[in-house]
């Protein structure tokens, strides 16, 4: 490799970096001619990284089926670079078994067994997914060609320094490693997945309380990285949060301690305890776990592109308004798209459940606002069974307005809700749930492409990253159906009790125990152990990642701040431009520094996606790769927009 080859350093080598590398390979022939040096700094195995590493419990699964996982930017992705077809996880597994995919290291016996048992509808283990991601990384590196040198450093980046412009006038950086090494870079890409943060003040207070009283407290964290060995068999444990981290927690504390599930004649499950399990008391804001993934198939037409939340509709709103409001201007269009897909499947798939024809219903539906009495009357006249009416607010808050008389009422209500959800989403006779799922997914993938984030008012940016993402995750990003059956089995076994919606927790100094209850129930319980089952909120100021902490503390990067009715509000996320450039506190771009991931203010989420969905992370990967190549192709990167030392001091 010539000594003058321009250099890119990736801080982080998980699936997101692998996706960008693949896009660099695909776009390089048309944008950059010459040698290139790439360094990937990743303490775990490149490709899988920390979150998807092999070294975790074999009981942990993906929440997507094998058919719904790909790393390839297929021809559905609306991007400027060339599409590249390649095997998704299911096809890759078949290719490994039949020998058509040979560039895979020898797999352990239990992984080969998983490959043989895998079907497109299976939910693979994260261990198996790690092997697919690592294979993709190696493939992306190979696709870059012989004049691109890729060096992987099994190390941790601790800081990025900017000693000054290089001899050609371009920005030059030094990336410092925990081992003491230093990497020279023309461009630096922070490409990290979910990162840890130091505990928020309230969580830190609870940890201190538990330490003083000999209890246990787990602050928000990646579930599989927490040591739960201090929790004793039979011990009562309070758990706040019933999302995906909660599902992982159940795997670790029950099957992970030797218990197992057995099939029941009615299709349910029974739990056979090992005797090493604790007893959990779980609640959350909604009081129920995420909705099950769906196993039905559509009877009617495939769900196409959004009909109301379109480029034309958004452009019309942008032309008429300086700022857009998500809840009043965009959400009604999204809700209407969801309703259109849902009711079309009812009409097309189950004509015995409706009155009239779809064409007649659709013609009226097109002319009505989602939040109008006329639309409600149209549905009531066409769908006789009120249980089939789509109520998105009730879907979001299933126990809103409910007051539970006692503990037994909470248990019945939550268990019945979970049972009904599993039945709806696994029954072949309720594919309208799949239509709703698909419509929301398509809008979720389109939102970042159609709506410039800077044109949303501050309240709406909070709503998008808060409520909308949470609602979408609740409806579309839930666990496999059998996980909910396991929750019911644990409940029947007396090892999981429900606290209900509106959960609260407080430390009680008098007893030295945590006390918990629900704002909608009179039930109050106490325990010496408390687990906050969720990922930590993003925070640059409190980041436990040394490179991100350095970026913030040096004044090069800043948290996104929104001006709300209550004053300035920090989202905790790193502020980046629409091109993923790191932005300084004064808004100027930091030439040569880029960042992508869930801890940035960018739109995209995830690192892999369903095939054929024009996935947002793939669009972002392509745009960022092209931007990197364009920067390297320029005579020299412009450094005049980088803040001066005096400016940095003023920050």
Automatic annotation (TrEMBL):
SUPFAM superfamilies hit by this protein: FAD/NAD(P)-binding domain
Highest taxon above the source species: Bacteria
InterPro entries named in the record: FAD/NAD-bd_sf, HpyO/CreE_NAD-binding, L-asp_N-monooxygenase_NS-form
Residue ranges the record marks as coiled coil: none
Pfam family for this entry, one: NAD_binding_9
Location of the FAD-dependent urate hydroxylase HpyO/Asp monooxygenase CreE-like FAD/NAD(P)-binding domain: 9-194
Name of protein: FAD/NAD(P)-binding protein
Organism listed in the record: Arthrobacter gyeryongensis
Native organism taxonomy: Bacteria, Bacillati, Actinomycetota, Actinomycetes, Micrococcales
């Amino acid at each position: 490799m010539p000594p003058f080859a321009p250099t890119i350093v990736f801080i982080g080598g998980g699936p997101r970096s692998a996706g960008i590398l693949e896009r660099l390979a695909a776009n390089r022939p048309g944008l950059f001619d010459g040698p290139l040096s790439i360094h990937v700094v990743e303490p775990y195995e490149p490709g899988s990284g920390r979150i998807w590493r092999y070294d975790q419990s074999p009981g942990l699964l993906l929440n997507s089926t094998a058919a719904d996982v790909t790393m390839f930017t297929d021809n559905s992705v609306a991007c400027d670079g060339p599409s590249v077809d390649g095997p998704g996880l299911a096809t890759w597994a078949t290719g490994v078994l039949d020998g058509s995919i040979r560039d895979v290291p020898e797999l352990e016996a239990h992984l080969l067994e998983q490959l043989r048992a895998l079907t497109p509808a299976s939910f693979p283990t994260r261990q198996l997914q790690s092997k697919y991601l690592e294979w993709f990384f190696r493939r992306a590196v190979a696709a870059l060609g012989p004049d691109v040198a890729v060096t992987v450093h099994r190390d941790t980046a601790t800081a990025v320094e900017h000693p000054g412009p290089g001899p050609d006038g371009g920005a030059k950086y030094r990336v410092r490693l925990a081992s003491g090494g230093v990497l020279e870079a023309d461009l630096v890409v922070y490409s990290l997945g979910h990162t840890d943060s130091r505990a928020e003040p309230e969580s830190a207070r609870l940890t201190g309380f538990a330490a003083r009283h000999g209890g246990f407290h787990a602050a928000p964290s990646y579930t599989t990285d927490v040591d739960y060995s201090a929790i004793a068999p039979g011990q009562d444990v309070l758990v706040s949060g019933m999302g995906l981290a909660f599902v992982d927690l159940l795997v670790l504390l029950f099957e992970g301690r030797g218990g197992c599930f057995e099939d029941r004649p009615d299709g349910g499950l029974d739990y056979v305890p090992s005797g090493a399990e604790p007893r959990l008391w779980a609640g959350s804001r909604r009081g129920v776990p995420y909705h099950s993934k769906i196993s039905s198939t559509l009877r009617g037409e495939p769900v196409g592109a959004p009909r109301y939340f379109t480029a034309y509709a958004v452009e019309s709103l942008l032309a008429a308004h300086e700022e857009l409001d998500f809840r009043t201007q965009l959400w009604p269009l999204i809700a209407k798209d969801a309703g259109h897909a849902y009711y079309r499947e009812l009409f097309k798939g189950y004509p015995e459940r409706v009155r009239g024809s779809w064409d007649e219903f659709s013609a009226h539906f097109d002319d009505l606002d989602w939040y109008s009495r006329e639309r409600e009357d149209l549905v009531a006249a066409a769908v006789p069974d009120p249980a089939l009416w789509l109520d998105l607010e009730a879907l979001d808050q299933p126990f809103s307005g409910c007051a539970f008389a006692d503990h037994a009422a909470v248990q019945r209500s939550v268990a019945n809700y979970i049972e009904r959800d599993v039945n709806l989403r696994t029954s072949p006779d309720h594919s309208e749930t799949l239509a709703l799922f698909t419509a929301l997914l398509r809008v979720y993938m389109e939102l970042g492409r159609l709506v410039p984030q800077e044109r949303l008012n501050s309240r709406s940016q909070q709503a998008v990253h808060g409520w909308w993402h949470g609602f979408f995750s609740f409806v579309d990003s839930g666990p496999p159906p059998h996980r909910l059956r396991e929750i019911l089995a644990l409940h029947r076994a007396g090892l999981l009790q429900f606290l209900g919606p509106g959960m609260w927790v407080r430390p009680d100094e008098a007893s030295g125990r945590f006390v918990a209850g629900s704002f909608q129930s009179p039930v109050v319980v106490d325990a010496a152990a408390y687990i906050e089952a969720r990922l930590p909120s993003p925070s640059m100021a409190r980041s436990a990642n040394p490179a991100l902490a350095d970026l913030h503390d040096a004044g090069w990067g800043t948290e996104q701040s929104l001006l709300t009715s209550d004053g300035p509000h920090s989202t905790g996320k790193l502020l980046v431009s629409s091109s993923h450039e790191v932005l300084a506190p004064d808004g100027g771009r930091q030439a040569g520094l880029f960042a992508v991931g869930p801890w940035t203010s960018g739109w995209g989420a995830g690192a892999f996606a369903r095939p054929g969905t024009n996935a947002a992370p793939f669009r972002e990967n392509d745009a960022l790769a092209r931007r990197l190549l364009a920067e390297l192709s320029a005579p020299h990167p412009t450094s005049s927009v980088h803040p001066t030392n005096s400016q940095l001091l003023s920050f």
